[in-house]
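Shall we go through a protein fold together, starting from nothing but its sequence? Please make up or recall a protein chain and show it to me in full. Go ahead whenever you are ready, and we will take it from there.
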Amino acid sequence: MVDRLLALTFMEAKEIIEKEGKHIYSVKVASPPKNPSNEYDDDYRVINVRELNKLGIELIVCKPLLC
């Protein structure tokens, strides 16, 4: 399941996780050192996933670049 979540938006990943009967244990935000942030929205992209136990998932997300 981990590979299926990478590069999806937070909202898309959340829907898949819930369909699998799991829950999001935590969400961490990757941001530049000079501009730290813990806030995220549904459009952030998943860049890493960790399965903490059989039911809990930790997502690391980042703000997408808009060209």
Notes: The chain has one domain: 2-62. The longest helix spans residues 10-19. The beta strands are 23-30, 45-51, 56-62.
